[in-house]
Amino acid sequence: MIELLVPQRITLAAYQYPQDRSAAARLRLSRQIAAECRTYIVEFMEPMLNGQLMGNAIEISSRQLPHYYQLAKKAAEILNIPIPKIYMRQDPYLNAMTYGNGSQSLIVLSHSLLDQLDDSMLMFILGHEMGHIAADHAHGDISPQFWDLGMHW
User: Does residue 118 sit within a domain?
Assistant: First the structure.
């Protein structure tokens, strides 16, 4: 196993791009956008995603794939966020994605990542995905989808 050299903890302000911080602040000020994003996530995205994951993925936990769970736990500790649900799904491509925000956050990793990357590389991927959670990127990521659906505010 590779020895990981990591900081004890890091704050969002230490790595967040300044324009990202100001865009997130502006989005938080708009209650209508926040309410519509929350409704979209709760009523459409979460049920769809949960159904897909229940049938096509394995939740990474202390009981299933515990080694990867420990890496995720360490990454969450460093970024000072609660550990999100993390799933592994069968996918030949190296891919990771984050959905939701706050306590509803989850990360999906392709099995190819776990098969082909070492621990330090996986920690980087997990840190990157958890950084999206820490920075609350879910609202910014789904706003363009409202325009595609005709939900203009």
Answer: yes
**Domain range holding 50?**
17-149
Q: Is there a contact between 40 and 142 (Cβ–Cβ < 8 Å)? A: yes
Are 123 and 96 spatial neighbours (Cβ–Cβ below 8 Å)?
no
Does residue 3 fall inside a structural domain?
no
CB 65 within 8 A of CB 71: no
Which residue in this structure is represented by tokens 């363009």? 144
- Contact call for residues 18 and 135 (beta carbons, < 8 A): no
99 beta partners: 106
129 belongs to the catalytic site: yes
Q: Could you tell me the CA-to-CA distances from 31 to 34, 36, 76 in Å, in that order?
A: 5, 9, 28
Residue corresponding to tokens 């009523």: 43
**Tokens read off for 92:** 């030949």
pLDDT by residue (tens digit) across 124-147?
Answer: 999 999 998 888 776 545 544 444
What is the arithmetic mean of pLDDT over 71-97?
A: 94
Specify the residue for token string 């100001």. Answer: 22
Number of helical (H) and strand (E) elements in the chain, helices listed first? 8, 4
The structure tokens 């990454």 sit at: 75
> What's the CATH number where 101 sits?
3.30.2010.10
**Into how many domains does the chain fold?**
1
